[in-house]
Amino acid sequence: MVQPKSHKFGDHDLQEVLVWMPQGQSADSVFWIVFIHGGAWRDPKITACNFVEPAMSILFSDTAAHELSIPDGKSLAIASLSYRLSPHPSYPQNPETTPHHSLRIAKHPDHIEDVCSGIAVLGREYGLSDDSYVLVGHSCGGTLAFQALKRHVETGGIPAPRALAGLAGIYDIESLVENHKDGPYAEVYASSIKGAFGDDKKVWAHASPRRSYEHGSRELFSGRTFLLVTANEDDLVEPEQRDGMKYTLAGRHTKNPQIEETQDCRYAEMSVEGGHDEMWQQGERMVKVIQRLFMILSGI
Q1: Whole-model pTM over 0.85
Q2: Cα 66 vs. chain centroid, distance in angstroms?
Q3: Catalytic-role residue among 88, 111, 138, 276
Q4: What is the pLDDT of residue 261?
Q5: Choice among 82, 132, 139, 175 that is catalytic
Q6: What is the DSSP string of 11-66?
């Protein structure tokens, strides 16, 4: 795989954005996909690099250039955001012997602060601007993508994406914990959320896109395109997460839309084969999502 260019935006090892941009292209000649990896805010095995690797060779192939319907007829550029992680019990660190710049001790809002800082770097270094990119987030990366859009509306500190794709996104944090409280992995769900957000459920609600969007301004999604994706064998994030976010975005009368146009936004959904992490581990499945998103944006 072609090596990315790395841009650091802080002292921590994980405060980094990786960029794959065709040689000789200028800022106004490319359309961006900006990826946000998942991993329950804490999994050090999922990185900004290995998250995009399976899809990368396909997205930059000659075939994809003709089949992707890249918006505005531009070339494709890709960025993948890295962010500080919360502690993981399976990968403990000794704070006395681990350098501070390598410690995984992040707490909300550290994760979203890093995501927004990475997007801001793309604006400064590459001219990333409003509507010149799509945000694609998997699992908690889907949470972070919606949080980043909210940050744009509230502060204007980062460019606005033209569209957002959430793959098995977590949109209601308390609901996720509640739905698994009697299952065999109840403690895993609870510990991952408490490790990232603490014990205060008010913080969980404020960080949950479904909750914060329901009680926020319609500007949060006005004029945007959203594609919410599930995996048909996902045993980690239930489809009710998408259903709840769908109702928030497109209204409760929406039923399994291919594309639902509302007065506020354009909403679509799809399902891919396989399990939770196969959505990105099998590159062709991620590419199908990108292809669908670009087709919607191009009106195909």
Answers
A1: yes
A2: 25
A3: 276
A4: 65
A5: 139
A6: SSTT-EEEEE--TT--GGGEEEEEEE--STTT-TTS-HHHHHHHHHHHHTSHHHHH
Question: Is 200 annotated in the active site?
Answer: no
26 is in which domain, residue-wise? 5-297
Question: The domain that contains 261 carries what CATH number?
Answer: 3.40.50.1820
Q: Over the chain (300 residues), what is each successive 10-residue block's mean pLDDT?
A: 90 98 87 98 98 94 82 93 98 97 98 98 95 98 96 88 97 98 96 98 95 67 90 97 91 60 81 98 97 90
The closest alpha carbon to 123, from 90, 161, 153, belongs to 161
H or E element that contains 34: strand 30-36
Residue 136 parent element (H or E)? strand 133-138
What is the domain count for the chain?
A: 1
- 3-class secondary structure, 202: helix
Task: Respond yes or no: is residue 111 known to be catalytic.
Answer: no
Residue 139 appears among annotated catalytic residues: yes
Q: Is 299 left (phi over 0), alpha (psi -120 to 50) or beta?
A: left
Joined tokens for residue 204: 């969980």
Burial 125-147, CB ≥16 within 10 A → b, else e? ebebeebbbbbbbbbbbbbbbbb
